[in-house]
Q: What sequence folds into this?
C-alpha cells in the first residue's frame, strides 16, 4: 500500500528524516511512535505531499508519488489540532472532501450523514464547528478525513488533546471503526499507550531514523535499544557483560534468560522483574519514593536507591509496597531481563513484518508500564 | 454570546497557537520571539520551487498593469522633463533641490504629514477600539457615516471643514475657536479625511482578535494597559502600521485640502508639482520634484516593510460578533461616549453642515436645491446634468473596483507567501501610486499612451484605470494581513482533502478573507467614487462624475450654484453611505450564508 | 448551485475585464472618424445641448468634447501633445497663457467665419489667425451692497481706493500662484502701476489688511460676506471675483430683486480673453474649421453668457436679460500683452508671494 524508500528530509543543518524505509500493508494500522522532534510529523507530511523530499521516494499502491501534489494523492490526513474550517458548519467540513472529488450534492449529503452517524454525531451537520467541544471536534475531523474514502488515512496525534477517559474510549472506538471499514491507517503519536492500543504494528522513531518496528507486543517485550526502552518508560538500564546464565552489571550479577547474546551490551530489567525481599537478601536498597498508579491491580512504582549502581524502579502491589525510607533487598527475575541492542545497529525490520521470536513463557509476565499511558495495557491489543 | 461557546472558541484558538510539533523549523507562537519567522513563511520555504512559479504567474497581471499604467507614464513624463532639449538636465536636480523655497515646501510636507498621521492615530485608534469591542445602537450606520468624508471631493471637504473650524463654524460658536487661518485646520481636516482609514483597517482586525488572549495576560499579572501593549498591540501592529502608512502617504501627498485650507502660505510637494506642471509647464522642475517624492515614498515603504517583516505572525482570529459586547458600567459607557463624541464633532458635524446648507434654500429650508437638480438639464442653470453625473460616478467606480479587485487580489494572493526580496520589492512597488502626484500620472498618461494600439488618451477607460491605481494599494493592504494570518495548515487540510491550490484558495482562504475583500472592495469603490485629483487632469470624454460636477458648480458664483453643489454633495454622501451600509450588511450576513 | 454561481461570477469578471479593455482600445479609434470632430477644452466649458445639436445637424459632424482639468492644465496638455493632438480644436486659452502654445506651434492658422464681427483689439494673432477670440471675462473686485449700505460707506471704485484706510481689512483676494482671478488681479495692478510700481501698491494693500485665500472658492463662498445672500458667514465685504458674479448671484431666484446683492468696482478690472484654435496635426481639419466657425456663430455667442458666465466677443451678439439687468459693463479694463505676461509671470508671482503672503 504505502512504501517509503530511503526518504530523507532536512531543514538546513538538521535532518528530520534520515533515509527512512517504511512499509504499510493494506488494511493495516501502523503507529509511528516517537518523542517530539523525532521526525514523525514530517513523515506524515511527506506522505501527504505537503513536504518535499530531498532524496528517496514515496510509493502509494506501487506508484511513485514524486511530483504529485497533495490533492491528487488520495490520502487523508487528520491534523493534530483538527484544522476544521471555521467558516463552515459540521456538514460543510465533512462534505468538503467528497465535493472536491466531484460528488453530487445529494450524494455528498448522504455521505455526510452516514459519517456523522459513524463517528457518533448524528444530526450535528448544521452546527458551527466553533461551538463543538474538543471531543466533538475530534470526531468531526475524523469524519472529514474519512469522507473522501482515502486509500490511506493518516492521523497526527489523533487523541493528543483529549482528556484521558475520552481518549481511552476513543481508542477502542477507532480501532473497531478502522477494522470495520478496512481502512489503511498510518498514525503518529508520542504516547505509547495510544500506539499500542491502536496499532497492528508500531514504528519507533529516534531523531529521523527508525529505531524499531514490530507488533506492539514485540516492541514492548523486547525494546531494541536503550532509547526505545526509555521511551517506553523503562529506566532500569545498565551496561552488562553476559557470560553464560548471568550478566555482570553495576547492580552485581543478574540471572539472565538463556537466549541472551553473550558478551558486552546493555540490559534492561523491567520493574516487574525487580522483586522486593527482606533487607538481608540480594541487593540492598533504600526506598526513595513510591508512586501509586491506580488501576485494577493497584500497582505501585517504588523508586529504590541501591548501595551500588544507578537507581532502580520496582513494581509491586499496594499491599506489598514498602514505606518510604525502608530498607529492602532486591532479587531479579531473569524472565524480566532483556538485552538491548546497540542503538543504531538495531535491526531495521520495518518492512519485514515477520515477528522475531519471543522468548518462551515471557508473554504472561508482561505488565503495564509505569508511563502515563500505562492504563492501556498491551494485553488489550491482540 | 454564551459562555460555553466562547470557551470552545478559545480552546481552538489555544490549540492553534501551539507549535504543531517542533520538528519543522517552527517557531514558538511568541510574537516577539528572537528572529521568529511566522509559521506560514516556514511552510512556504519548505514548499520550494513550485510556489515561486505560481507566485510569478499570479504577479504577471498586476505587474503588467503597473508597468503599463503607472511605471511607463511616470517614466515618460520624468524623462521628458529631464531630457528636455535633447540632453540630460542633470544640473537641474541640484538647482531645484538647492532652492530655499523648495526646501521649505519639502520640510512642510514632511512635518505636516507626520503630525497629521500622529493626530489621526491618536484620535482614531480609540474609535477603532470602540467599534471593535463594543456594541451600541446605530453602530453600523455610524461606521458608514465616518467613512463618508473619505469619499467626498476635497473642495467639499474644505468647505465643510471651514463650517466646523472657520469663522462662525461650530467650534467658533461653541468654544470660540477659529482654526481656518492656522495650520491646525489642515491637520484636523486630514484627521477628518482619514479617520475611516484607521477605524476600518485597524478595526476590522481588532474586532477579530480573541479578547481572551488579553485576558490570559491579565491573569498572568499584567495590568490592563500592559496587557494591551504586550498582547493586543503587537497583534495589531501590522494593521496599525498599514493604516499609518496609508494616512501618511495621503497626507504627504495631500493636494485638495492644502489648496482649500492652506491658503498661499502652505504648499506640499504635491501642490508644488501641480503648480510646476499644470500652471508653469516647467517639466524639468516637476520631474525633479516627482523623483524626490518617489524617493521619499520609496524610502518610507522600505522602512515600513523592514519594520513589518518580523512583526506579522499567524493570529488567532475569531468571528467579530463574539468579541463585541455592550458597554457595561459607567466606566465603559464614559469611554464609549467620549470616543463617539469626538468622532461626531470631527466627522459628523461637518457633514451635517453640508446637509444643512443643501436644505437652506432661497425660500427657507426645503428641497428647493434638490428639486432644481432634477430640472431639465438644458435650462441654463446647469453645467452638468446631476442624474447623469450620479450614473457616471457609479459606473466608473464599479469598473475601477473590478479592476482594483482583480489586480489587487492577484497581487495579494501572490504576496501571501512571503519570500525573497523580489516579492517584497513588488509589494512596495504596488504602493507607489499612492505616493505619486496625480498630475504626474495624468500628464504621464498623455505623453506615454499616445500611440496606437495604446492611444488611450481620449478613452473613458483612463478614468477607472487611474482610479484603480489608487484603489489597488487599498485592496492589497486590507487583504494581505488577513491572508497572511490564515493558518497555512487550513490550506493543507483542504489539499489533503483533494482540493487543488486554486480551489483551496477559493474555498478556504476566500471565505476567511471575504470580510477583508468586502472591506477592500468598499474602499476601492468609495475611493473611486470620490476620486477627483487623478481624473481631473486627464482630458477625457465628457462624462462628469459627481465630484467633478460639484467642483464645477462650486466654481460658479451665486446661491443657486452653491446650493446645488451642496445638494449634489449630499447626494454623493448618501450614495456613499448607502454603498457602505450595504457592505456592512453583507459583512454580517456572510457568516450566516456559509 | 453556489458553486455555479461562483464560477459564473469569476467568468463574468474575466469577460468584463476583457470587454473593458477591448472597448477602451477600440474607443480611441472614434476620433479618426471623419464624421466626428473633437473639441479639447477645460472643465469650465459648457454649451446648451440644443445649440450643439443644432450645429451637429447642420454640419453633419458629431461633436466630441474632451475636458482636461482647469484652464492651465488643459493648455499645458495641448502643448505636451503638440503635433499629435487629442482632438481637432482647442478652446480655452486666455491671454495670460497664450504665448506658450503660440510659441510652441500648437495651433494651425485658420480665419474663422464671423471674425469681422469681432473687435480688432481682441485679435491676438491678426496676421496668421492661429487663434480666434471667443469670449471675454473681467476680473474685478466685487462688493457686498448691503454691507456698504449698512455702514453708510461708498464702495471702492479703483485699485487706489482699496489701499485707503477706510477700506482697511475688507478685501479678500486669491493666491496669484494658483488661482486664475488671483493672477488677473495681480496683472491689473501691473497694468495700472507699471512694471516697477505695482510692488509698492501691494505693500500698501497688505498694510491695509488685504487677505489672501488659497482659491476663488474659498474667497468667494466662505470669506466674502455678499455671496449667497450672506449665508456664507464671511466677514469680508470685498472680494476679487468676476464682473459676471452679480448676475450669477441672482440666477435661479424665483423673485428676482431689483438689484444684484453685489456690485462691481469698475476701476479694478482686468480683462481675460479666451481663444480657440485649430490644433496642428488634427485628424479632421475640415470639421475643426467648421467647429471654429460655430464658436464664433451668433447662436453660440449668445449661448455663452449663461453657460460660462463670460461675455461674447461678437459685437452683434445680444446679452441675456440677466446680464443687462444685473451685470455691469466694464468700459476700460486693464490688460497686459500676452508676450509680456509670458516673460515676467514667474518673477511677478514670486515677488507677489513675498509681498502679499509671506
A:
Amino acid at each position: 500500500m504505502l512504501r517509503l524508500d530511503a526518504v530523507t528530509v532536512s531543514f538546513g543543518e538538521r535532518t528530520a528524516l534520515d533515509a527512512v524505509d517504511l512499509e504499510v500493508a493494506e488494511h493495516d494500522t501502523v503507529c509511528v511512535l516517537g518523542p517530539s522532534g523525532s521526525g514523525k510529523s514530517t513523515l506524515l507530511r511527506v506522505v501527504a505531499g505537503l513536504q518535499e523530499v530531498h532524496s528517496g521516494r514515496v510509493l502509494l499502491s506501487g506508484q511513485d508519488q514524486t511530483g504529485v501534489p497533495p490533492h491528487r494523492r488520495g490520502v487523508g490526513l487528520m491534523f493534530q489540532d483538527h484544522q476544521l474550517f471555521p467558516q463552515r458548519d459540521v456538514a460543510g467540513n465533512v462534505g468538503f472532501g467528497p465535493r472536491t472529488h466531484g460528488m453530487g450534492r445529494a450524494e455528498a449529503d448522504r455521505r455526510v450523514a452516514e459519517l456523522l452517524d459513524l463517528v457518533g454525531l448524528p444530526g450535528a451537520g448544521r452546527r458551527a464547528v466553533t461551538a463543538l467541544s474538543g471531543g466533538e471536534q475530534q470526531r468531526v475531523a475524523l469524519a472529514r478525513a474519512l469522507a473522501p474514502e482515502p486509500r490511506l488515512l493518516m492521523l497526527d496525534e489523533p487523541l493528543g488533546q483529549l482528556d484521558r477517559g475520552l481518549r481511552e474510549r476513543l481508542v477502542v472506538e477507532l480501532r473497531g471503526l478502522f477494522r470495520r471499514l478496512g481502512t489503511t491507517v498510518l498514525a503518529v503519536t508520542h504516547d505509547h499507550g495510544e500506539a499500542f492500543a491502536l496499532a497492528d504494528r508500531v514504528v519507533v522513531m529516534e531523531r529521523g531514523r527508525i529505531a524499531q518496528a514490530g507488533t506492539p507486543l514485540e516492541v514492548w517485550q523486547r525494546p531494541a535499544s536503550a532509547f526505545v526502552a526509555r521511551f517506553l518508560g523503562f529506566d532500569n538500564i545498565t551496561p552488562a557483560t553476559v557470560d553464560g546464565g548471568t550478566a555482570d552489571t553495576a547492580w552485581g550479577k543478574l540471572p539472565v534468560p538463556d537466549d541472551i547474546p553473550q558478551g558486552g551490551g546493555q540490559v534492561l530489567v523491567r520493574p516487574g522483574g525487580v522483586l522486593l525481599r527482606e533487607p538481608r537478601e540480594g541487593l540492598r536498597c533504600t526506598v526513595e519514593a513510591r508512586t501509586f498508579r491506580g488501576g485494577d491491580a493497584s500497582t505501585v512504582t517504588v523508586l529504590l536507591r541501591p548501595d551500588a549502581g544507578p537507581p532502580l524502579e520496582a513494581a509491586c502491589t499496594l499491599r506489598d509496597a514498602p514505606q518510604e525510607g525502608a530498607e529492602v533487598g532486591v532479587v531479579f527475575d531473569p524472565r524480566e531481563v532483556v538485552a538491548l541492542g546497540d542503538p543504531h545497529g538495531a535491526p531495521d525490520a520495518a518492512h519485514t513484518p515477520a515477528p522475531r521470536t519471543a522468548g518462551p513463557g515471557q508473554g504472561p509476565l508482561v505488565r503495564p508500564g509505569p508511563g502515563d499511558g500505562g492504563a492501556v495495557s498491551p494485553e488489550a491489543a491482540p | 454570546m454564551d459562555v460555553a461557546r466562547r470557551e470552545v472558541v478559545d480552546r481552538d484558538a489555544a490549540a492553534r497557537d501551539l507549535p504543531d510539533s517542533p520538528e519543522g523549523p517552527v517557531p514558538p507562537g511568541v510574537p516577539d520571539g528572537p528572529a521568529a519567522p511566522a509559521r506560514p513563511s516556514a511552510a512556504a520555504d519548505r514548499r520550494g520551487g513550485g510556489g515561486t512559479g505560481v507566485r510569478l504567474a499570479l504577479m504577471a497581471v498586476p505587474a503588467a498593469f503597473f508597468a503599463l499604467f503607472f511605471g511607463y507614464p511616470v517614466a515618460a513624463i520624468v524623462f521628458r522633463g529631464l531630457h528636455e532639449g535633447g540632453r540630460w538636465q542633470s544640473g537641474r536636480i541640484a538647482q531645484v533641490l538647492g532652492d530655499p523655497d523648495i526646501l521649505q515646501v519639502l520640510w512642510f510636507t514632511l512635518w505636516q504629514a507626520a503630525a497629521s498621521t500622529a493626530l489621526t492615530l491618536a484620535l482614531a485608534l480609540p474609535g477603532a477600539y470602540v467599534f471593535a469591542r463594543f456594541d451600541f445602537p446605530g453602530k453600523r450606520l455610524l461606521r458608514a457615516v465616518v467613512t463618508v468624508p473619505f469619499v467626498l471631493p476635497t473642495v467639499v471637504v474644505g468647505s465643510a471643514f471651514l463650517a466646523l473650524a472657520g469663522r462662525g463654524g461650530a467650534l467658533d460658536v461653541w468654544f470660540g475657536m477659529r482654526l481656518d487661518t492656522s495650520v491646525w485646520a489642515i491637520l484636523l481636516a486630514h484627521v477628518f479625511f482619514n479617520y475611516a482609514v484607521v477605524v476600518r483597517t485597524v478595526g476590522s482586525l481588532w474586532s477579530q482578535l480573541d479578547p481572551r488572549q488579553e485576558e490570559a495576560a491579565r491573569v498572568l499579572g499584567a495590568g490592563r494597559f500592559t496587557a494591551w501593549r504586550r498582547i493586543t498591540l503587537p497583534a495589531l501592529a501590522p494593521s496599525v502600521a498599514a493604516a499609518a502608512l496609508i494616512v501618511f502617504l495621503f497626507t504627504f501627498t495631500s493636494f485638495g485640502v492644502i489648496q482649500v485650507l492652506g491658503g498661499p502660505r502652505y504648499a506640499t510637494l504635491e501642490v508644488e508639482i501641480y503648480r510646476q506642471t499644470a500652471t508653469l509647464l516647467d517639466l524639468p522642475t516637476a520631474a525633479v520634484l516627482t523623483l524626490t517624492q518617489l524617493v521619499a515614498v520609496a524610502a518610507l515603504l522600505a522602512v515600513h516593510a523592514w519594520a513589518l517583516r518580523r512583526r506579522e505572525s499567524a493570529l488567532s482570529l475569531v468571528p467579530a460578533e463574539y468579541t463585541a459586547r455592550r458597554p457595561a458600567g459607567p466606566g465603559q459607557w464614559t469611554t464609549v461616549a467620549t470616543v463617539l463624541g469626538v468622532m461626531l464633532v470631527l466627522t459628523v458635524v461637518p457633514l451635517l453642515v453640508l446637509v444643512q446648507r443643501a436644505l437652506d434654500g432661497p425660500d427657507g429650508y426645503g428641497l428647493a436645491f434638490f428639486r432644481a437638480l432634477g430640472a431639465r438639464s438644458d435650462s441654463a442653470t446647469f453645467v452638468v446634468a446631476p442624474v447623469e453625473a450620479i450614473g457616471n460616478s457609479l459606473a466608473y467606480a464599479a469598473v475601477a473596483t473590478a479592476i482594483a479587485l482583480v489586480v489587487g487580489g492577484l497581487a495579494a494572493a501572490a504576496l501571501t507567501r512571503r519570500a525573497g526580496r523580489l516579492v517584497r520589492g513588488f509589494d512596495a512597488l504596488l504602493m507607489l501610486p499612492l505616493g505619486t502626484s496625480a498630475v504626474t500620472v495624468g500628464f504621464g498618461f498623455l505623453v506615454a499612451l499616445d500611440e496606437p494600439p495604446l492611444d488611450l488618451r481620449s478613452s473613458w477607460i483612463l478614468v477607472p484605470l487611474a482610479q484603480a491605481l489608487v484603489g489597488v494599494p487599498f485592496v492589497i493592504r486590507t487583504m494581505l494581513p488577513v491572508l497572511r494570518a490564515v493558518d497555512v495548515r487550513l490550506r493543507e487540510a483542504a489539499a489533503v482533502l483533494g482540493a487543488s491550490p486554486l480551489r483551496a484558495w477559493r474555498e478556504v482562504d476566500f471565505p476567511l478573507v471575504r470580510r477583508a475583500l468586502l472591506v477592500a472592495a468598499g474602499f476601492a469603490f468609495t475611493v473611486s467614487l470620490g476620486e477627483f485629483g487623478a481624473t481631473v487632469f486627464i482630458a477625457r470624454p465628457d462624462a462628469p462624475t459627481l465630484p467633478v460636477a460639484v467642483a464645477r458648480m462650486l466654481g460658479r458664483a451665486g446661491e443657486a450654484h452653491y446650493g446645488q453643489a451642496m445638494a449634489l454633495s449630499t447626494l454623493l454622501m448618501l450614495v456613499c453611505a448607502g454603498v457602505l451600509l450595504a457592505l456592512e450588511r453583507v459583512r454580517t450576513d456572510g457568516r450566516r450564508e456559509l | 448551485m453556489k458553486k455555479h454561481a461562483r464560477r459564473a461570477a469569476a467568468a463574468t469578471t474575466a469577460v468584463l475585464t476583457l470587454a473593458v479593455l477591448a472597448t477602451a482600445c477600440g474607443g480611441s479609434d472614434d476620433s479618426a472618424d471623419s464624421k466626428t470632430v473633437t473639441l479639447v477644452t477645460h472643465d469650465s466649458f459648457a454649451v446648451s445641448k440644443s445649440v450643439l445639436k443644432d450645429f451637429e445637424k447642420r454640419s453633419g459632424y458629431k461633436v466630441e468634447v474632451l475636458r482636461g482639468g482647469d484652464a492651465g492644465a488643459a493648455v499645458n496638455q495641448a502643448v505636451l501633445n503638440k503635433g499629435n493632438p487629442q482632438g481637432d480644436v482647442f478652446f480655452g486659452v486666455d491671454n495670460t497663457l497664450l504665448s506658450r502654445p503660440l510659441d510652441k506651434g500648437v495651433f494651425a492658422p485658420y480665419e474663422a467665419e464671423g471674425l469681422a464681427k469681432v473687435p480688432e483689439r481682441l485679435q491676438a494673432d491678426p496676421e496668421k489667425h492661429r487663434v480666434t477670440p471667443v469670449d471675454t471675462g473681467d476680473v474685478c473686485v466685487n462688493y457686498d451692497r448691503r454691507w456698504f449700505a449698512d455702514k453708510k460707506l461708498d464702495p471702492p471704485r479703483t485699485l487706489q481706493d482699496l489701499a485707503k484706510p477706510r477700506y482697511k481689512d475688507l478685501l479678500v483676494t486669491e493666491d496669484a500662484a494658483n488661482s486664475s482671478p488671483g493672477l488677473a488681479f495681480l496683472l491689473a495692478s501691473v497694468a495700472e502701476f507699471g512694471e516697477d510700481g505695482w510692488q509698492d501698491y501691494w505693500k500698501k494693500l497688505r498694510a491695509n489688511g488685504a487677505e489672501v485665500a488659497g482659491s476663488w472658492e474659498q474667497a468667494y463662498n466662505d470669506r466674502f460676506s455678499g455671496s449667497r445672500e450672506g449665508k456664507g458667514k464671511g466677514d469680508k465685504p470685498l472680494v476679487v471675483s468676476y464682473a459676471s458674479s452679480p448676475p450669477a448671484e441672482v440666477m435661479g431666484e424665483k423673485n428676482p430683486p431689483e438689484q444684484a446683492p453685489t456690485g462691481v468696482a469698475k476701476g479694478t478690472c482686468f480683462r481675460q480673453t479666451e481663444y480657440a484654435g485649430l490644433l496642428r496635426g488634427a485628424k479632421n481639419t475640415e470639421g475643426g474649421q467648421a467647429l471654429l466657425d460655430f464658436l464664433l456663430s451668433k447662436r453660440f455667442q449668445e449661448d455663452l453668457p449663461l453657460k460660462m458666465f463670460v461675455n461674447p466677443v461678437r459685437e452683434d451678439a445680444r446679452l441675456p436679460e440677466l446680464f443687462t439687468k444685473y451685470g455691469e459693463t466694464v468700459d476700460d479694463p486693464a490688460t497686459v500683452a500676452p508676450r509680456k505676461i509670458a516673460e515676467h509671470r514667474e518673477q511677478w508671482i514670486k515677488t507677489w508671494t513675498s509681498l502679499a503672503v509671506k
Q: What stands out?
A: Strands of chain C lie at 36-41, 62-67, 89-94, 107-108, 132-144, 171-174, 211-213, 238-242, 262-279, 311-312. Residues 2-27 of chain C form the longest helix (26 residues).
